[in-house]
Specification:
The protein is α+β, with helices and mostly antiparallel strands. Helices cover about 40% and strands about 20% of the residues. Bound molecules: adenosine monophosphate.
């Protein structure tokens, strides 16, 4: 038997409904904040990622899935979405129509990390990016939007961790101060950090190796080196978050694993999975659009880790699988033909109805209905045909209702409309009602 490769997973029915729910909750909220959906390829030229994410980052150094295409071009499976969205913004000259663009996308990312709990080699992100707004209002607004999403999903113990990474004005001085600090501590650093302490010293700040953490005690803080503009920006972000009641804390070691960030960097953390873990991370990257060949455009974005979010939400939302509202148990070919017509009619009316298609007896059809978790069962055999009515049984209360054959489907549509019991979310109900009201959508 051929099995999955290491570090990837199937999202099976039962779980996939939860993923659809998360995607739906995120996209509807983001769209209310003015974001538009964009779909980008999962493959790009390797150069796009190495230039934007940075040559000396973990992702580019050791985690990218890169291969030579048949023509010799180097291609990489995207390890994140920001670079591709920036490429698209520039390539399609979106700025020429309207410099302010708010875009979001959902999809798989690929990083060859060591597989462990909650870390996959193909994982999924909900990613949102805003171009053309330099104001700290936007930094606080997207953190507010993220927190709103988590609170709607009942992920309640969230906190935003914030830092400012400065700008090309103030960061170089901080980098050299940090390098000097690290030079005196080379021997205590892990191998990766020894290599980085010169070229990319910021990365040493968030190294998780205990020896490095200890060595970093007393390291200079970027917050103390910010230029007045960056300081004002950072203070304004914190002020707006406070006004909006968003819980946050400053983490002077938060640098994030990508080189393109400037000013605000943040992560949303929760303890719901045991240890502290980040469900989302993002930041401002005011220089990236220009660096990749576009006009000088400020930008900010974030990515939510869907795998982690799904794990957390599953803890309290339970089973998401959709169960039939009605199972029609038909006996004999005439009844089966009628049931077939009804099931198809009901399915097109937005009702989840099922039937047996294998000529099973009543007992085994009832078992099938039970296994599928049908909320109601209608039995139709020769005697029901002769009497001109069907019995509908509510499987929870055992109550039975007799309904005339001619008006059966109308009865079911009226009875179940707006009462879509098998779907757990109100949004799903609203969604299917809207679909019924606008069938062409
Ligand atoms: P990043 O793009 O590294 O800033 O990550 C943003 C979010 O994506 C993180 O907070 C994680 O929740 C999630 N994430 C990143 N890498 C992985 C991975 N290998 N497996 C699962 N989730 C991941």
């Amino acid at each position: 038997m051929i099995q999955l490769i290491r570090g990837v997973k199937d999202i099976l029915p039962g779980d996939a409904e939860l993923w659809q729910y998360l995607e739906h909750q995120a996209s509807s909220l983001f769209e209310d904040f003015g974001f538009k959906n964009i779909r980008i390829p999962i493959m790009e030229r390797t150069e796009l990622f190495s230039r934007s994410i940075g040559e000396q980052t973990d992702i580019v150094e050791k985690e990218m899935y890169t291969f030579a295409d048949r023509g010799g071009d180097m291609i990489t499976l995207r390890p994140e979405a920001t670079a591709s969205i920036v490429r698209s913004y520039i390539q399609h000259r979106m700025y020429a129509v309207e410099p302010v663009q708010k875009l979001y996308t959902v999809g798989p990312m690929f990083r060859r990390e060591r597989p462990q709990k909650g870390r996959y080699r193909q994982f999924y992100q909900i990613d949102a990016e805003v171009f053309g707004v330099a104001s700290p209002l936007m930094d606080s607004q997207i953190i507010f939007m993220l927190m709103t999403l988590f609170s709607r999903l009942k992920v309640t113990d969230c906190i935003a961790r914030l830092n400012s990474l400065g700008c090309p004005e103030c960061r170089p001085a901080f980098k050299s101060a940090l390098s000097a600090f690290l030079a005196a501590r080379q021997a205590s650093l892990c191998e990766d950090c020894q290599r980085r302490s010169d070229k990319n010293p910021l990365r040493v700040l968030d190294c998780k190796v205990p020896a490095c953490r200890q060595a970093m005690d007393g390291a200079p803080s970027i917050a103390d080196s910010l230029c007045p503009e960056c300081r004002r920006h950072f203070d304004a972000v914190m002020q707006h978050l406070t006004l909006m009641g968003i819980p946050f804390e400053i983490d002077k070691n938060l640098v994030r694993g990508l080189d393109y960030y400037t000013r605000t960097a943040f992560e949303i953390q929760t303890t719901l999975l045991g240890a502290q873990s980040a469900v989302a991370g993002g930041g401002r990257y005011d220089g990236l659009v220009k660096m990749l060949g576009g006009p000088d455009t400020p930008a900010i974005g974030f990515a939510i880790g869907m795998d982690r979010l799904a794990e957390i939400v599953a803890l309290h939302l339970g089973d998401f699988s959709r169960r039939p509202q009605l199972f029609i148990a038909a006996l004999g070919s005439a009844c089966q033909t009628l049931a077939f017509e009804w099931v198809n009619r009901l399915n097109t009316e937005g009702i989840y109805a099922e039937m047996d298609m294998a000529d099973r007896g009543l007992k085994s059809q009832m078992k099938q209905a039970d296994r599928q978790g049908a909320a109601h069962v209608a039995i139709i055999g020769d005697s029901e045909m002769a009497a001109g009515q069907v019995l509908i049984r509510d499987m929870a209360t055992r109550e039975q209702t007799a309904v005339p054959l001619e008006t059966f489907t109308e009865y079911i549509v009226t009875r179940f409309d707006g009462l879509v019991k098998s779907r757990i979310s109100d949004d799903f109900v609203k969604c299917s009602q809207a679909r019924r009201a606008n069938p062409e959508e």
